[in-house]
Amino acid sequence: MSTGPMVPLVKVLMPERNVLMPALEEVLYSGMIAEGVHVHAFEARCRDTFGLPNALAISSGTGALHIAMLLAGVQPGDEVISTSMTAEPTNTTIMQVGAEPVFADVDPQTGNLDPASVEAMITPRTRAICVVHYAGYPADMTALRRIADAHDLKLIEDCAHALRARFADQPIGTLGDFAIFSFQAIKHMTTVDGGLLTLRDESLLPAARRLRWFGLTKGVPRTEVDLVRPGFKYNMSNVAAVIGNASLDVIGDRVQRHKDNGRFFDAKLAKVSGLSPARVDEISEPSYWLYTLLADDSDAVERKLASIGVMASKLHRPNHLHTAFKDCRRSDHGLTSFYRRLVHIPCGWWVSDAVRDQIVDALKAG
User: Fold this and answer.
1) What pLDDT, on the 0 to 100 scale, is given for residue 2?
2) Angle at the Cα of 283 (from 255 to 333), degrees rounded to 5?
3) Which of 29, 141, 326, 357 is most buried by a 10 A CB count?
């Protein structure tokens, strides 16, 4: 039984103190701590670093998703096809705009939306599809894009887990009409809290900027600006952006470590009795925010890893089990199978070669 500190499932990534603290001190005493040049630089660097179009920095991933829903035309009484296998804000945001989440089923080998189930759930009230790339494993965007286009629906990517993932050699976040990323504390990178909104249609940028700043056009004197549609206080601060800019200097190497560890586990655990790695399609490149393992006895895996000082967990609860979502239409045969077998194990930049070998040896031992 391990007596030392546990290897965590998730961990906060902060830039080195000697890099971050001088930059923070400079902005904190600059007199310009709200949205300004640091935010605009962060937006430009995110576009270049992650290959994203038209990126806007937002105060949270949830705020970014709220704006995406509004720009997608989702209104009270509409339906948005989503997934129950996600963090709750994906679906509370749908409710926030007055629409109803409809839970399509998931592929029991990945936890991602099953395109056939998505298409079967479409009704005349359906306005959009919200796809979560669960745990950083890309969903089948070819099929979902086809379905969205065939039914004249907006496709919104929730990429909170999927920074630097790719599908069909395209960056995740470029295949939907809208996409959001999260820089909340425990994601691949953090701005303490923050998010990013990307839009395929560049003409929507002015409306998106107004929605993140009360409905006003920023930079125009308050005595001259006209508020046409109420917006929100969703802008990012310079303070958060400084943390983000420093993090961008190291994020490539850190996410690559997630990927390297994930591929290591894919290879080493594929033939262990009672275990199977989540399926990775040939055209997908996961970002492995969490490593998704499917086990005949997921509780036993958690106990085994705890005995060697490694955290493991299902982490999320299917949303339809919450009272708030109990009346939402759903299909969950595949989800029931997936969740029963699901156990996440750590594979981030803090997982050393020695630790990942220890994890594999423990699981091989049974």
Assistant:
1) 60
2) 95
3) 141
